[in-house]
Task: inverse folding
């Protein structure tokens, strides 16, 4: 059966993207699936253009990698929603949109006017991403990635050193999760709309998106009166805190196992270790017969000490390769460099090269987020330049004349 | 059995769910909550790993006593089917023919070996949509390498970018990737349904959690590909804001030992204005005049001292107290919530985030609901099924097997209870 490339499944749907950096990923995913996504920015540009990798501010007028990564395949227009003319333009776009996403800062004058838009376009599915959700005692509270990770319960669980504060995840996890959940919610609403024709207003909380990432912390308290933290968890039965271990050229991720079905996973590693040093005592242990509560502490210390020394004598790549071949569970703590060199991703044809039109540089993007013989969801083109599609959208789509465009530009509405 | 789901988006959609642990079940949980009939296939010989993982009611392990399983399998039906039995294929095939969507997250190759691969199933059911979730994809040199959610966090670079600058890497001891992929999987499935509406065509979706998770790291990956640069870990600091960190609060005597001292508040000022508000809340107007902290650049230069000064204030307060004082003054801030804090969080309570449901074994408990409210659509959130709870309903009512058929299958060990 030869795969026939098919048109993307959401071809023909239009998305109005009013997000700030906390929501950019949503429009990108919808563009990957075939939607026409119109990214709206203020005339001076989205502040997220000034953001580079690891939250570093960009130098000069160059657009940062954050924007370039999360706005692929979108059309770019500018308008000032604080002016009457700008608001009118926005409303005309709303009338023609199938989906709308916005992430506003509560308390700031926002373009968002959900009930008015539902009046203009009853079929519209509009998702609003706010730090704590609309309504409730914290509705006007501000966030930032650190704040969101704290408020949702994730930060408490993060960071190996108990003598230091918990440490946040070094990516915009909360915001990207809120954006990804917004996409799921909008498509669930879309499924409904296919049957009923009705639109939907979706009110999404970044805090709740983070809470949805928690493995089991709330229930550990509820059922066992245990506070899960950055320490081995007694409520997880056979599973324990994972370990990050230094090796010759970096770190690897590995744990020892006990209990039925799991203890045997220690053996292939121990057999390899035995080729280099004496671990007969460890090989003689029946790991399956032990449990997390019965395993003797000095046995654990012995195993961890031997493994720790062993890892220091080998590289990440070697340890991973042997883990795959010998079938024990160990993974490298990959840096971006390691990920880019990963032969698994290479074999899957994962990376996507897109030219940044501003600089002419070829950028390497993460590619399709699933594989199917029908179509591939991935970036359809570069992120837009500021106002790049003003003419295409305002003239071509809305039918404004040249003169009207010039006036709008002169008055700063565009 | 009335579903009451007629007005929900996935009403009438039949989902056959072979998935286990977290990533597959969370995906199908949302389908179930929004009206799909999700039949979860389980076997007594190797119960879903999350049934065998705590937290358990009263810390006593039991197939139906796991809070984690209950949380991730809301609104589903459960049947037992011993896929290891030679006669199981027939019954599995009948279930597959009933299904519009099949979801699984076994190691690549397992479904094929059981004769339940996409090609076979689609022969009997053209238009079938099948989703296979896996750590690294169905193909490639490491497709079969075993692993669990946390290891993927290391593989996908999330640990490397997390940690203090002078220390080792390492993030949360969680299984984050398992909670990241479901949203992408839901998007893939709903758009597959749209595609089928348009073209009549089904498809096989091969989703690698590794490939999904890397999208969260795109800027760092692009930076490294461009000029080889990998930026240093920053702990809780920010290159574009100060103060920006996590500060110790007053100990909480009512908490268990390990957690008692782990009271913290996160504070971030993204503008000079917010910094000035912070000084007012701390009643340190002198700091507002202090040249060492007057600009972002100055605050970054003196950040250690800045953090010490803020700690002196936070140390005397409880996290929520500090948060509310600061937020009322417009300063971004949040207590670093533990599992107990999350359940008692005034905002999460006001939002009704946790669905209070009565589970037959666990009792009335708070379960994790969606992070959103929709204006005209509410999910149908029902407790997770007991093991094999719906054998009769599914095999007899949905598939049309007779009582004798079912009895034979039980006798043959195809439908297994122990």
Result:
């Amino acid at each position: 059966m030869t795969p026939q490339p098919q048109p993307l499944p959401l071809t023909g749907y239009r998305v109005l993207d009013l997000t700030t950096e906390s929501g950019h990923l949503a429009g990108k995913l919808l563009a990957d699936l075939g939607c026409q996504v119109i990214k709206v920015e203020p005339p001076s540009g989205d502040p997220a253009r000034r953001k580079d990798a690891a939250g570093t501010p960009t130098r000069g007028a160059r657009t940062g990698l954050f924007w370039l990564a999360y706005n692929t395949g979108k059309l770019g227009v500018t308008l000032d929603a604080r002016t009457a003319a700008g608001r009118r333009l926005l409303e005309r776009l709303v009338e023609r949109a199938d989906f709308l996403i916005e992430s506003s800062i509560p308390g700031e004058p926002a373009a968002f006017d959900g009930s008015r838009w539902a009046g203009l376009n009853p079929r519209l599915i509009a998702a609003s991403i706010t730090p704590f959700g609309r309504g409730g005692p914290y509705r006007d509270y501000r966030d930032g990635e650190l704040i969101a990770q704290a408020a949702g319960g994730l930060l408490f669980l993060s960071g190996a050193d108990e003598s230091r504060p918990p440490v946040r995840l070094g990516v915009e996890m909360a915001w990207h999760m809120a954006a990804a959940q917004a996409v799921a919610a909008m498509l669930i609403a879309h499924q409904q709309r296919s049957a009923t024709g009705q639109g939907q207003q979706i009110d999404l909380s970044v805090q709740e998106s983070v809470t949805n990432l928690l493995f089991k912390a709330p229930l550990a308290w509820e059922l066992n009166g245990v506070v899960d933290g950055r320490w081995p968890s007694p409520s997880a039965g056979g599973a324990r805190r994972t370990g990050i271990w230094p090796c010759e050229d970096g770190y690897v991720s590995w744990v020892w196992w006990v209990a039925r079905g799991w203890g045997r996973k220690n053996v292939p590693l121990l057999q390899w270790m035995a080729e280099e040093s004496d671990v007969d005592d460890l090989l003689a242990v029946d790991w399956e017969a032990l449990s997390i509560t019965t395993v003797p502490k000095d046995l654990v210390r012995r195993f961890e000490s031997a493994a720790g020394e062993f890892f220091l004598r080998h590289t990440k790549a070697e340890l991973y390769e042997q883990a795959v071949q010998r079938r024990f569970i160990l993974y490298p703590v990959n840096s971006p460099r390691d990920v880019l060199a990963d032969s698994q991703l290479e074999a899957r044809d994962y990376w996507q090269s897109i030219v940044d039109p501003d600089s002419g540089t070829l950028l390497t993007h993460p590619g399709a987020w699933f594989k199917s013989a029908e179509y591939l969801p991935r970036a359809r083109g570069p992120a837009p330049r500021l106002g790049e599609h003003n003419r295409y959208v305002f003239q071509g789509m809305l039918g404004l004349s040249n003169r009207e465009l010039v006036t709008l530009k002169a008055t700063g509405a565009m | 059995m009335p579903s009451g789901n007629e007005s929900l988006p996935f009403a009438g959609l039949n989902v056959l769910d072979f998935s286990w642990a977290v990533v597959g079940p969370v995906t199908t949980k949302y389908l179930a909550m929004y009206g799909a009939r999700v039949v979860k296939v389980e076997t007594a010989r190797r119960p879903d790993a999350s049934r065998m993982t705590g937290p358990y009611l009263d810390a006593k392990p039991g197939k139906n006593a796991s809070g984690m399983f209950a949380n991730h399998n809301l609104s589903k039906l459960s049947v037992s089917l011993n896929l290891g039995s030679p006669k199981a294929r027939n019954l599995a095939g009948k279930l597959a023919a009933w299904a519009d969507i099949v979801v699984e997250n076994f190691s690549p190759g397992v479904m094929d070996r059981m004769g339940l691969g996409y090609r076979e199933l689609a022969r009997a059911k053209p238009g079938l949509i099948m989703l296979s979730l896996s750590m690294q994809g169905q193909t490639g040199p490491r497709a079969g390498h075993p692993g669990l959610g946390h290891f993927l966090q290391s593989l996908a670079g999330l640990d490397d970018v997390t940690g203090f600058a002078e220390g080792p890497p390492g993030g949360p001891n969680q299984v984050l990737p398992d909670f990241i992929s479901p949203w992408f999987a839901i998007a893939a499935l709903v758009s597959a349904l749209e595609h089928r509406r348009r073209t009549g065509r089904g498809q096989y979706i091969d989703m690698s959690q590794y490939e999904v998770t890397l999208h969260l790291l795109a800027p760092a990956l692009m930076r490294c590909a461009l000029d080889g640069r990998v930026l240093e870990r920053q702990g809780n600091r920010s290159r574009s804001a100060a103060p920006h960190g996590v500060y110790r609060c007053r100990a909480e005597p009512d908490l268990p030992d390990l957690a008692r001292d782990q009271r913290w508040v996160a504070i971030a000022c993204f503008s000079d204005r917010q910094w000035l508000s912070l000084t007012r809340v701390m009643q340190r107007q002198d700091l507002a005049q202090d040249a060492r902290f007057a600009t972002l650049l100055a605050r970054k230069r003196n950040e250690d001292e800045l953090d010490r000064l803020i700690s002196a204030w936070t140390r005397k307060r409880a996290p929520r107290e500090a948060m509310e004082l600061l937020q009322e003054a417009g300063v971004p801030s949040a207590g670093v919530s533990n599992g107990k804090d999350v359940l008692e969080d005034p905002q999460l309570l006001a939002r009704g985030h946790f669905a209070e449901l009565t589970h037959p074994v666990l009792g009335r408990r708070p379960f994790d609901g969606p992070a959103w409210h929709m204006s005209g659509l509410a999910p149908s959130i029902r407790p997770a099924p007991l093991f094999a709870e719906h054998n009769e309903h599914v095999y007899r009512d949905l598939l049309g097997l007779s009582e004798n058929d079912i009895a034979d299958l039980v006798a043959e060990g195809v439908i297994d209870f122990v």
User: Anything to note?
Assistant: Chain B has two domains: 14-215+348-411, 263-337. The longest helix of chain B spans residues 176-199. Residues 51 and 63 of chain B are 5 Å apart (CA to CA).
